[in-house]
Amino acid sequence: MINQSILMADDDADDRFLVQAAFEDNNIPHHILFFEDGEQLLNHLSTTSGDNAPSFILLDLNMPKRDGREVLKVLKSDKQLRSIPIIIFSTSKAPDDVNSSYFLGANSYVVKPSSYEHLKDVIQKISDFWLNTAMIPS
Amino acid sequence: MNLTSLRLLNRSLDERQLTWAIRFLFGISILLIIALSYSYHKINEELIFYSERVDHTQQIMNTLEKTSSKFYQTVYHGRTYLLLRDEANKRAIHKHISDLDPLLNQLDSLITPPPLNKRVKELEATLDELYERTHIYWTDSTYTANRQDQEALLRDASVLIAEANRIMDDLSIAQTKLMHNRMQSRDNYKKQVFRYNWVIMLVALVFLTASFILLDRELRRNNLYRIELENKVENLNRSNNELEQFAYVASHDLQEPLRKIQSFSDRLLLKHRQQLKGDALIMLDKINDSAQRMQLLINDLLAFSRLVNPGDNAQEVDLNEILKEVKSNLSETIKERNVVIDSAYLPGLEAYPVQMIQLFQNLVSNSIKYSKPEVIPHITISYKLVGGSEIPNIKPAHKELQFHRIEFADNGIGFSPEYAEKIFVIFQRLHGRGEFEGTGIGLAICRRVISNHNGYIIAEGQEGKGAKFFIYLPIQPFIS
After folding, report:
1. Nearest to B379 by CA among B422, B327, B332
2. Could you give all domains of chain B from N- to C-terminal order, each with its CATH number?
3. For the whole model, what pTM was predicted?
4. Shortest Cα distance from A20 to chain B (angstroms)?
5. Searching chain B, which residue's CA lies closest to the CA of residue A62?
6. pLDDT at B11 over 80
7. How far apart, in whole angstroms, are the C-alpha atoms of residue B69 and residue B63?
8. B55 pLDDT exceeds 50?
9. By 3-state DSSP, what share of chain B in percent is helix, strand and coil, each rounded to 5?
10. B289 to chain A, minimum CA–CA distance in Å?
11. What angle do CA B439, B440, B445 make, to 5 degrees?
12. Which residues lie closer than 8 Å to B126 by C-beta, 6 or more apart?
């Protein structure tokens, strides 16, 4: 198991299950941590030290308690956490959501695919890019 | 709304009748005022005329009086002179005679009617004769006459004097009579002028009040309509907002479970294909198909609901450009089926460009989709400017407007005339899904686009003989 982890915040258990399955089916060896809402994610990040920063975060927009937009705002205004790549992973295709996410500093925006095959493909591409192609802070 | 306002809205005259009633009342009152003013003016002229006549008669009477007094004095001094033969009386005679002349001239010019003027002339003649007979006495101081001559002269003079006095009396009596008549006429007209004044005022007051009451009622009624309209607009805005919320729900919450159905059945196939038997695979396929279809329906519903709120601003659009863009969007299908599109030169108008593209694209692709398999699809687009009265079932308020009529005619499979209305209903299809794909949103979108532009769309068709779509767009779709 590789040291650096991947974080995902999504209130939908099915989505968490499917994403996990997609990571497994793509044989990605990273450890994936799931959170049910923004608050849990922020709590986790506040307790981990800088050395244990995740490779990237998959963040859903519509969640109870603190939603994706709020989490994005908090993370991107935090001196230490702002460098973690954040990928918005939402069902919304609304131009408003896309624009405001990038405005708040999201590193990319991906719409949740509607079939598993497509999801597997998207997870493969995301991992390929953020783990193997792009350089990320370590 | 309270009871009086309800009663007010419940009009006894329709709008057109009311407009005419108001115009009629105004017209009549203006005509009456003009007519009355004219006759008032005439009467006034008469009044002035008679007043002038009265003044004139007054002047004649004054002159007559002066003449008569001068004459009396002349006669008095003449007689005294005959007795005394002195200078003072002689001077007085000369003076009075020279005064009489202009007075007589004045009388002659003032009294113009022939019978009376004749009398004036007679007066002049009598006085002239008197002068002829007597002037020798005071012009020639050496002249003396015997007693007999003098008496004869005095007798003749007395006759002439009496004659002159009678003429002057006659004239005076005639003038007094005239004066009396004229004064009576003048007074009559004076009374009439007052009466006319009152009639004019009353009539104008009655008619103007009537039209004011009608106008006032109409204004109040309009006000109520405005309030009602504002309420309706508010309701409309509310339901539009609700529809937008619904669109959001459809886009997000309804798609969520759908995505799950597709994802899980996908993964089931991927992981457990080997364990599944023949009909289990078929059933799973059916689940997938249905989910995909549901996805399409939701997407179309969303596309339709987005049309409720146009979003972008209307601008000047050249429909030829729109058609060009639609052709390029559909270029693959057009090439594949060798579609022929003949179009007349189309007008430009104020419109929502994106919606116009949707409209044209749906109509063209509809014609291609429902073409006969063995025939090359041929679409003819023609254009004509028409009056609103040519459109069946048009709103009364639109009858007077001018419309662009754009006709899309094809040589496709057509449809039975009884479905001409039904095909515009959302998700209504005339064919099984096996024959033609699609959800049945296209023509519903067309109708929505047309109604966003305050226009009309009408379908005409016959089974196997092609379809025609008539689009009517007002030349000025938007009031502003």
Report:
1. B327
2. 5-213 (1.20.1440.210), 311-474 (3.30.565.10)
3. 0.57
4. 12
5. B252
6. no
7. 10
8. yes
9. 70, 10, 20
10. 12
11. 120
12. B160, B163, B164, B167
